[in-house]
Structures are given as C-alpha cells and as structure tokens.
C-alpha cells in the first residue's frame, strides 16, 4: 500500500506492507523506494516493511538548497512517528541511505534495533569529491539529469548485471532521468558536507550487517570490510556478481543474508 504523510510541512510517499517487527528501507542517490521492490516483496511476508521516498525523490515533495544527512534522518524519524511506529526498526540503508543511517542512529537511538548497511561507507568526501559534487550539481541544474543517468549506470552496476540484466539498468536510468534537478543538487550538496563517521563506529551498539557487491567501485569491499571491523558487533557479507546496487542486482542472495542476520538476533 502507498501512503502519503505530511512531516514538517512536506509530503512523503511511503510504501508500507506486512505486519510484525518494523524494517525501514532507505534508498540511495538519486533513486526512490522502488529500488527495494525485491526486499519489500520478500520481507513483507514476515515483517512490517516501511519504504519511503526521501525528501526530493520519487513521489515525495521536491527539495531545494542543501539537504544534509541529518535532515533526511529527521524526516525518517518524523515519518515513523506519523505512522505511529513505536517499536525500534531494523534500519536498512543503501549508500546515501547508509550515510543517513549514521545520523539516524545518533539522533534517534531509541528508534533503531539493528543496522543493515549496503554498499556504503563512513568516511567523508575528499576535497576533490566535494568539488566534483558541486560541478555535478551545477550541471544537473543547467542541463537536467540525462548525463547523470548515463554516467551512473557503469558506476552503479557490475559488468555482470550490465551484460545479463540490462532491464534493471534501464529502469534505474529512467528513474534518474525523472528526478527533479533541484532535489538532485540538494542531495549532492548535502552529501558533500557530511561528517566523518569513522569516529562514531566504536559507539555503534546495535547489531550491524555490512553488505557489499564484489564489483562495487564506489564503496569497495575493502573499504566496507574495514568499516565493519570498526563496529563491535558487525557481520560482513560480500555479494558475488554485484556492484554498488547489490540488493537490486542479487536480490535472492542479499535477502537470504539479511534473513540470516535477523534470525541471529532472535
Ligand atoms: C548512492 O548510491 O547513494 C551514491 O552513490 C552515494 C554517493 O554518491 O556517495
């Protein structure tokens, strides 16, 4: 079921399915909640699945200026309150969704039961990465997202997915093409100013699962393995024949890994 909720004067589109312990799926940049369709179908059989479109993305209100990771995190807390979800959630975020997770776990600790971090990292942007993001933001504002849709395909997917599952790549590209340029720029600027979260890894006290595609070029297996080592109660899983979009590229394997992790908590 798709619901619309207003939080702080903004409208949010939220997919909510199933019943049981809540699991919150937080999409990456510049995508929307539909990237989790395989996970929603699978986990709604046993859990309450909540998958919102973040501010500026999908069918949620557009964004302007700079949207920081803490802003997205506070939106999510507001969405859970608006849905009257009282139990702590399993927070599953991909890439930018993981950057948001670091803020969420610090700002709303009572709302988190576990973390599932897919293809993400804790380190901040280098000066070069910040400059690239600003260039991309300005180009998207001037030209629209077409160039990004083309450029991101090779960065997001493994060569295996590009060869064997071109429809997934095409669907993701059309999602990027349909995203509001102001919202894309606002998230880029927000990611550029995100804090160094390597320093908070030690304080993460909820069970954590780190998942990464073997061909992820944006957040490589080495980077994620190191990150997982920094968290006292973390498990690490590498996904074969997957890139940066591992839950979309290898849904069966990733769903099983998440299911095994959740079972290990009970
Ligand atoms: C994402 O998938 O959310 C982005 O690649 C994150 C980023 O650009 O750092």
Structure overview:
With 266 residues, the chain is an alpha/beta fold. Helices cover 45% and strands 18% of the residues. The protein contains 11 helices and 8 strands. The chain has helices spanning 37-43, 69-82, 96-107, 127-143, 146-156, 159-164, 166-177, 181-192, 221-229, 246-249, 251-265, and strands at 2-7, 10-17, 22-26, 48-52, 89-94, 112-118, 208-213, 234-239. An 8-stranded mixed sheet has the order 1-2-4-3-5-6-7-8, sandwiched between helices. Helix 4 runs antiparallel to helix 8 (181-192) and helix 5 (146-156) runs antiparallel to helix 7 (166-177). The longest helix is centred in the middle third of the chain and has 17 residues, at 127-143. It starts with a strand and ends with a helix. The mean pLDDT is 97. It binds D-malate (MLT). Residues 28-29, 95-96, 191, 218, 244 line the site of D-malate.
Task: Write a compact overview of the structure shown.
It is built from eleven helices and eight strands. With 266 residues, it is α/β, with parallel strands linked by helices.
- Apparent shape: globular
Portion in beta strands:
15-25%
Beta-strand segment tally: 8
The N- and C-terminal alpha carbons lie at a distance of: 28 Å
Helical run tally: 11
Give the radius of gyration.
17 Å
What is the overall pLDDT average?
Answer: 97
Uncertain runs with pLDDT below 50, 5 residues or more? none
Query: Could you tell me which ligands this complex binds, including any ions or cofactors?
Result: D-malate
Reported for the largest beta sheet, the result is:
8 strands, mixed
Class by alpha and beta content: alpha/beta
